[in-house]
Design brief:
- With about 375 residues, the chain is an alpha/beta fold.
- The protein has two domains: about 170 residues, Glycogen Phosphorylase B (Rossmann fold); about 190 residues, Glycogen Phosphorylase B (Rossmann fold).
- The protein contains 18 helices and 13 strands.
- The protein has a seven-stranded parallel sheet with strand order 3-2-1-4-5-6-7, sandwiched between helices.
- It is globular and about 60 Å long.
- The mean pLDDT is about 90.
């Protein structure tokens, strides 16, 4: 069969590449064309546009690059029309993908499947109208999304979570080297610092994280460097800190950590899957206003995937008005020194892990896609 996939970010490239691999195992004649990245390219087929040419976030960047964005959409529509795939598979990236879904269903009548739902449960719930009209099947990776969509009278499939797959695969392999010795670390327990993947996140969160880590000299801070960020960018914030910076070693760091300071996002879930107690702390400008907007205009009670999946407060979320030196320090002290509190958090992690289910998200999604297409 002929598949056309669209992934507009690095995470989408990863998840789409795993899905492509799973589809190839079930469909020996699979052909791919796609908007995506290097990981998808390794699976074969034709890369039409790299996500680096598409990833514009925020009102001003989108406005400044509107001509490019519209050009990308036209190119995408032309490629799909010429290719005539058996199915178009969208991967997250809703601002772009839902517009393509409308074109594909309205003009071409090609089935549209969505892998990794847009986060309309957080905000922009109005997008359900377009999803109902233009998306034939939705394959979700968060267990609470099935109940959310059910209340909106739209049936979806929960296929498992890709982070469960990647962490389980990593933990199944023995460590090939002595982590501490290999990276020149001492014997102090490790405090992992995951300050985000974007420069702005690192700038806003890392200085506070390092300042508070320095209050606990019996613990060794290790910064997980983000892909695409040069070491010099991190070093400008180090000051007198003895923190090490390791790139491409996030899972190794978490595997060997006693506790972690983590910004929101997938990293909070990965930290839980490694069963590392954490403080979720995320700087937002105009903190009090941000907290007010979150309480009154968002449809969710939590920002971290750990709490969203668990359905309760398992980890503390210190963002907006709560992103203060005092609150973060108090919570860090608890996860480092209070054994009973640490165990309570680990028990909560076990609930989350049970709800996520077994590995195999891409495999199950591929199976559903093949079955739905009747091939």
């Amino acid at each position: 069969m002929k598949y056309f996939l669209i992934a507009g970010e690095a995470s989408g490239d990863l998840h789409a590449s795993n899905l492509m691999a799973a589809l190839k195992r079930r469909d020996t004649e699979a052909q791919f064309r796609y908007f995506g990245g290097d990981l998808m390219a390794r699976q074969g087929g034709t890369l039409i546009k790299h996500y680096r040419e598409m990833a514009f976030m925020g009102f001003i960047p989108v406005l400044m690059n509107l001509r490019t964005i519209l050009g990308n959409m036209r190119r995408c529509e032309e490629e799909i029309r010429a290719y005539r795939p058996d199915v178009v598979i969208l991967v997250d990236y809703p601002g772009f993908n839902l517009k393509i879904a409308k074109y594909v269903k309205s003009k071409l009548g090609v089935p549209v499947y969505y892998y990794i739902s847009p986060k309309i449960w957080a905000w922009k719930q109005y997008r359900i109208r377009d999803i109902r009209r233009y998306v034939d099947r939705m394959f979700c990776i968060l267990p609470f999304e099935t109940d959310f969509y059910r209340k909106l009278n739209y049936a979806v499939d929960y296929v498992g979570n890709p982070s469960v797959d990647s962490v389980s695969a990593y933990l199944a392999k023995p460590e090939e080297t002595d982590f501490r010795k290999h990276h020149g670390l001492d014997n102090r327990p490790i405090l992992a610092i995951l300050a985000g993947s974007r420069r702005q996140e690192i700038r806003d969160n890392l200085p506070m994280m390092l300042q508070l880590a320095a209050r606990y000299p019996d613990f060794q801070p290790i910064i997980a460097g983000a892909p695409g960020i040069e070491p010099e960018y991190y070093r400008q914030y180090l000051g007198n800190s003895d923190a090490h910076i390791l790139f491409g070693k996030t899972y190794e760091i978490l595997r060997n950590s006693y506790a972690a300071l983590v910004t929101s996002g997938t990293a909070t879930l990965e930290t839980a899957l490694f069963r590392v107690p954490q403080v979720v702390c995320y700087y937002v400008a105009a903190g009090r206003l941000a907290s007010y907007i979150f309480r009154h205009f968002f449809h969710i009670r939590y920002i971290s995937l750990v709490n969203l999946i668990g359905g309760r407060e398992i980890v503390q979320e210190l963002f907006g008005a709560r992103f203060t030196e005092q609150e973060i320090d108090a919570e860090l002290r608890r996860i480092l020194l209070d054994r009973e509190y640490r165990q309570s958090m680990l028990n909560g992690y076990d609930e989350v892990i049970a709800r996520l289910g077994k590995p195999g998200a891409a495999e199950k999604a591929a199976e559903c896609i093949i079955k739905a297409l009747g091939k």
